[in-house]
Amino acid sequence: MERRRFFKYLIGSGGLVIVLVALGSDDEVNDYEGERRELEALAEQIDQVDLASPSETFSLPNDIREATSKIDTAIETHSVEQAGIGATLYQSGNGLRSILLSREDSADLSETEAEIEAIESALTYYEGLRQYLLEASRISDHLYSIERGFTTASEQPDQPPEIRLDHLESQLDDFKQVNEELQSNDRLVSDLLPDQKKTLEEIHRLKSVYEAFEEVQANLMSVGENVSDGAIEHEQGEADVAKELFDTAIAQSTIDIQTELQEYSLAQNSLSLSNYTGILDDYYTAAKKMQESYDNSDSRASNRLFDEGLDAIFVARERIERTVSL
What we know:
This protein is mainly α and 326 residues long. The chain has 2 domains: 32-79 and 105-209, no CATH class; 211-325. The protein contains 11 helices and 4 strands, in the order E-E-H-H-H-H-E-E-H-H-H-H-H-H-H. A hairpin with a 2-residue loop joins strand 1 (5-12) and strand 2. The two termini are 62 Å apart. The model is unreliable at 1-29 and 79-107 (pLDDT under 50).
């Protein structure tokens, strides 16, 4: 492409002098196309992920960080001045004069500035999303460690410390604010972002998924403990205490999980929410049969019901082992 030339008129000792400065071909001018392609590829990757799934979002914070770090470095390396400013030196008979050429075109510079602003806005959006997913991954790790206690320990795991879902809520609020600010922007920004509506809906759902896991895990620990303690009290002849524990276990075994959340799991080969509800159903059966054994005056029938309750406990534990070994 023909090289562009800029003219500067100088008064030197020899009269009017025209200095020609070649700034280079159009192909040499930075237009940030590479950075835009990087962000568009990241947007496409995120659009293909179910952001409500802990197992699918596990690696996304690192992926986002890797992509945006490269773009950050490229933006810092670039100079807006390269797009429109050249310099030359002219030496006259009176000494050295330095000439800085003016910007080539104010409209072109505005386009460049708008492009940089769009990229920086997109980077802010992605950083907000990354921070949210990073906090989500910490919660996921915490919940998964509790689940491993169910699946590997011979006894019930210890009651976990409180999961700080309020931290996730705070990150969500921050991200929503960034998202709202970018809703009104033109396509220069929106083309660099994933589907904003889908993204927001799915990260809201991700929070609901963690809330559901927190609830089912807490209930499962309590139910398992109450059923086991009830069986021990029964063997020791403490019928009233045993019945009270079975009543509590029955109440805790019933939990309502939204249908759209049922198949989410914390990781591959881990328990889904529907698996948890199935295990709780087994414990419900165990507690119910043990409780009913007290209502039967026939001792043989009563013992049979209680034994069926014990069998249901083993079914629950086998369900856990079978599911995680698939």
